Amino acid sequence: MEGSVPQQHLLGLKVMRLTKPMLSYAVPVLGEPWDMLGTTLEENLSQDIRSPRDLPACSTGETLRLPMSFGLIFLGETFNGFISVHNDSQDVAKDVAVKVELLTPSHRHLLLSEPPLPQLDPSACEERIISHEVKELGEHSLICTASYMVFATGEEMLLRKFFKFGVAKPLDVKTKFMNIEEDILLEVQIQNATPTHMFLDTVTFDPSAGFRAQDLNTIRTNKSAKKPTIQLNNVCFAVRRCQCLEKITFFLHGTSVNTCTN
User: Fold this and answer.
1) What region holds the Trafficking protein particle complex subunit 13 middle domain (predicted)?
2) Which of these, 204, 212, 205, lies nearest to 182 by C-alpha position?
């Protein structure tokens, strides 16, 4: 029995995640002037494009490097991708149609679907940008499909590639309740679950029906008024990588504790 010959596609399909680039870095290897190599190591390091010009011994360079993989994406981020379809052959591809889908743990989202291109000449390429707000945790699969017809033979071809990435929680939130007569003292602990620094602009709390919340993090009184007036301000702080907890306290006023559904 003869084995089947694998299809040789005319088109190539590549995907790159659009994210902020990182600084390139070099590994400086230095020596002493009286060593056998002398200043050879320093001269080679100064010629490395990744090392800074004025500080060649510094590992962080002045150039930027693009990400080699999707990496980890956190819940709430917007996934931006760059799709490139390139004709790597010497033949003409006809009726080129590209479709991009995102498969999440519970849904299948269509990110790109356009009418077919009449033809794609040799060495020509088509580029598209996709965007999707990530709203689910777990494994995601980006499915890219390119269908076309070989102009010379009339054969219809189908090229499909899968790109997988994970979505993780950026924050760990824990709550503590303390009953004080008909009121409730709520303490919220927020922990940074990412490997980088994170800056939170605002933290607000929306109570259930029958309750009103008082922010205890910043309280200011108006001395000119007969009764103290509480001004609720937004909380602004940084959650750093040291895995320490930031605590935010709210005071809930209500007529009955049993009406709280949170």
Assistant:
1) 171-228
2) 212
- Identify whether 31 is part of a domain: no
Is pTM, for the whole model, over 0.70?
A: no
Q: Residue 37: its pLDDT value, please? A: 61
- Residue 138 contacts residue 164 (beta carbons within 8 Å): no
Average pLDDT along the chain: 74
CA 3 – CA 219 distance, rounded (Å): 77
What token pair was written down for 235?
A: 């909380």
Report in angstroms the alpha-carbon separations of 118 from 76, 112, 162, 182. 38, 18, 25, 71
CA atoms within 13 A on the CB side of 215: 17
Contact status, residue 25 vs residue 59, Cβ threshold 8 Å: yes
> What's phi and psi for 234, nearest 5 deg?
-70, 145
pLDDT tens digits for 141-186?
999 999 999 888 888 889 999 999 999 998 888 888 777 777 777 7
pLDDT score, position 26: 64
Boundaries of domain holding 77: 11-18+68-167
Question: What type of residue is 250?
Answer: F
